[in-house]
Amino acid sequence: MVSSFEKKFVLHLPSSTENLALIRDFVSKIGAQAGLEQGQVSMIELAVDEACANVIEHAYGSDQTKEVIVRARLNEDTIEIQVEDTGKGFDPGTIEQKELTKLIAERRSGGLGMRMMQMVMDEVQYSIKPGERNELRMIKRLKRS
Amino acid sequence: MANSFAVSNAQHGEISILMLDGFLDAHTAPDFEEAIQKEVNAGRTKVVVNCEKLTYISSAGLGVFMTFIEEIREAGGDIKICGVIPKVMQVFEILGFHSLFDIVGDVPQAAAKFAEGAEGG
């Protein structure tokens, strides 16, 4: 059933880290329009930045001819963000969530973005079909200002 | 513009101060990485990262700190972080950076931390 209040937004853009600022602005404007707390908007912006940076750098290997799609669906209680790509995909189960101290000892920083998304969003789900369509769906339950 | 970023460098005795300004994300993190790499290459391993003008950080920026900290500490130095605004501090705290790095109010306090370390041997 469709909620009594629901808005949908979509952003298509070339796969380049240069566009991360545009993506953050997109999320920020939606959050402001919906009257969300600034702190909460900042955290959603961060999660979407992380998701898109992973797509741009890992799924597409910084190939700027590819396209990243960000969809946002806002209703009274939640904001749902979906990030889509047609890149090489990955198995989220194989990404080890090591202690930070271990990563530091190994002089590595991999997997931080995924960890960040899981920390700041209420739900994070992947649907991976490499080369066809990969989707990352994140949900945040809302607090309004 | 919401993706501008700059890093500038000042030398105070043996302490290198890197001032970050703007948005540190996957697009701009290579600039920060290059700035720290220059310090390491020059053997300057007492580094203060002044974040008072840093308005945004994502994991790409945090990853730069993580990549270098072990090498710098092994060389007898450290990275002290100062001047962090609340929005950026929240991101540091999400990943537990406050327990892994000295994060202090300003550059003099960061310099004092280096002095304490030197006294403590």
Task: Explain how this protein is built.
The complex is a heterodimer of chains A (145) and B (121). Chain A is of the alpha+beta class and 145 residues long. Chain A contains 4 helices and 5 strands. Chain A has helices at residues 20-33, 38-59, 100-105, 112-120; strands spanning 6-14, 67-75, 78-85, 123-127, 134-141. Chain A has a 5-stranded antiparallel sheet, covered by helices on one side. In chain A, helix 1 runs antiparallel to helix 2 (38-59) and helix 2 runs antiparallel to helix 4 (112-120). The longest helix of chain A has 22 residues, at 38-59. The mean pLDDT of chain A is 90. Chain B is α/β, with parallel strands linked by helices. Chain B contains 4 helices and 5 strands, in the order ββαβαβαβα. Chain B has helices at residues 29-41, 59-74, 86-94, 107-119; strands at 5-12, 15-24, 46-57, 78-82, 102-104. In chain B, strand 4, helix 3 (86-94) and strand 5 form a beta-alpha-beta unit. The interface between A and B is medium-sized, with 30 and 28 residues.
Write a concise synopsis of the structure shown.
Chain A has 145 residues and is α+β, with helices and mostly antiparallel strands. Chain A has helices at residues 20-33, 38-59, 100-105, 112-120, and strands at 6-14, 67-75, 78-85, 123-127, 134-141. By secondary structure, chain B is of the alpha/beta class.
